[in-house]
Amino acid sequence: MNNNNLCFIMIEYIKGEISDLTPTYCVLETNGIGYMLNISLVTYQELQGQSAVRLYVYENIREDAHVLYGFLTKAERELFLLLISVSGVGAATARMILSSFTVAELQEVIATGNVNAIKSVKGIGLKSAQRIIVDLKDKIGTMHNAQCTMHNVGVGSNNENMEEAVAALVALGFQKAASVKVVEKLMKEDATMAVGKIVKRALSMM
To answer: Residue 74: helix, strand or coil by DSSP?
Structure first.
């Protein structure tokens, strides 16, 4: 990791019990304190079925808020830090990108200069996609190859999955009506689809 990034990390990680988990955030309880960490869809999928976890942290400190972002791997946090180092890419956009690709997929997309793949992410235009590739292509080549394998997760009732998927999309910045429409379409195709898969597919359709 770039030493310049290290100076901005005050909390390296938080380890605790998972008291709440949604596709957009995780609450970890440790020593009687619950920490709310914004997470990517990839991290959410990996946390399914776990009762405790260690999440690596990025603190986004602003005048009006102190927001924590959590990552299951250092590789995901490293990519997040690289993304927000690009002009015009904020923390919310970086999380959106990391919800659309696994670490390995995003490394491949940037390394191969796949502008169209990055441009397909909500909020990323052609110029921003090109800037991400130009700024990060060489840096991606120096990163360790970290594979994050996504797997199928258990599902609850159809209504619960739909509500959770819609809530996740709204939290990521999409309009509720549009989110409902896309989620309903996906669940008509496969009523047993897990929440994480619904949201990931919806991100590529909106």
So the answer is: helix
To which residue do tokens 């919800």 refer?
Answer: 99
Beta strand segments in 62-103, E: 66-71
How does residue 9 score in pLDDT terms, banded at 50, 70 and 90? low
List C-alpha distances in Å: 181 to 169, 188, 206: 11, 11, 10
Percent of the chain with pLDDT over 90: 45
- Which tokens go with 87? 């002009």
Angstrom distance (rounded) from CA 14 to CA 25: 14
Q: Which residues pair with 52 in a beta bridge?
A: 17
In tens, the pLDDT along 175-192 reads: 877 888 888 888 888 877
Burial of 31 (0-12, 13-18, 19+ CB in 10 A): exposed
Residue 146 CA to chain centroid, in angstroms?
Answer: 16
Q: What angle do CA 130, 132, 137 make, to 5 degrees?
A: 100
Cα 109 from Cα 138, distance rounded (Å): 13
In the predicted model, is pLDDT for residue 17 greater than 50?
yes
Residue ranges with strand state E in the chain: 13-21, 25-30, 33-38, 52-61, 66-71
What SS3 class is residue 44?
Answer: helix
Q: Count of alpha carbons within 13 Å of 188, Cβ hemisphere only? A: 6
